[in-house]
């Protein structure tokens, strides 16, 4: 676990000693700072709390154990040092192929912090690290009624490639679209 890197107004990096997660991405605007940090065993509780607020699904301990193993494909988002969002992905083999698929299991930002570019930073981070030499596709499920999420992913050229009826067990509507983006 490394020390976070913060940008000064002269755009030079300075290192600070801290127990915070390593900061791997940074965006500074006139009014706020957005940073992405690694998911570690020390901050896994933050991810669990975020997911319990953001998603109407309970995630197992295996889900969180697996998240600790995916490196750059699991990140927490910080807005002025407050943890407000996250993304968790899973690498999946493609039968009879040297390539993998990347499944976005969760990507979410707390409601008061939406439309500030935080979700965009999370998704861009994933897209930048999904090397087309290794990954053929990125995909995810979105509840059919979640128009905000559908519009967000369509901005990044994700396409609806299917529908799964009854995908969600305890929410209405229970149906999900499968969204996919092919990597070239």
Rg, Cα atoms, Å: 17 Å
| Chain-averaged pLDDT | 86
> Helix proportion of residues, in percent?
10-25%
What distance lies between the first and last C-alpha atoms, to the nearest angstrom?
33 Å
What portion of the residues fall into strands of 2 or more residues? 35-45%
Structural class: alpha+beta
Number of E-state strands: 10
Could you describe the largest sheet, including whether it forms a barrel? 8 strands, mixed
Which ranges are low-confidence, i.e. pLDDT below 50, for 5 or more consecutive residues? 1-23
Number of separate helices: 4
How would you portray this structure in words?
The protein has four helices and ten strands, in the order E-E-E-E-H-H-E-E-E-H-E-H-E-E. It is of the alpha+beta class and 184 residues long. It has an eight-stranded mixed β-sheet, sandwiched between helices. Strands 1-2 form a two-stranded antiparallel sheet. Strand 7 (100-109), helix 3 (118-129) and strand 8 form a beta-alpha-beta unit. The model is unreliable at 1-23 (pLDDT under 50).
């Amino acid at each position: 676990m490394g020390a976070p890197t913060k940008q000064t107004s002269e755009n030079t990096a300075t290192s600070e000693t801290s127990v915070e997660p390593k900061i791997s991405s940074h965006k500074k605007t006139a009014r706020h700072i957005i940073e992405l940090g690694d998911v570690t065993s020390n901050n896994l509780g933050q991810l669990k709390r975020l997911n319990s607020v953001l998603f109407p699904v309970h995630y197992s301990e295996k889900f969180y154990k697996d998240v600790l193993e995916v490196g750059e494909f699991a990140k927490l988002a910080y807005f002025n040092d407050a943890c407000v969002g996250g993304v968790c992905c899973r690498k999946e083999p493609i039968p009879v192929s040297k390539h993998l698929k990347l499944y976005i299991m969760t990507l979410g930002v707390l409601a008061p912090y939406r439309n500030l570019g935080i979700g965009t930073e999370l998704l861009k981070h994933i897209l930048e690290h999904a090397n087309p030499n290794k990954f053929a596709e990125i995909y995810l499920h979105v509840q059919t009624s979640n128009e905000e999420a559908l519009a967000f992913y369509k901005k990044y050229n994700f396409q609806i490639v299917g529908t799964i009826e009854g995908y969600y067990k305890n929410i209405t509507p229970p149906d999900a679209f499968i969204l996919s983006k092919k990597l070239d």
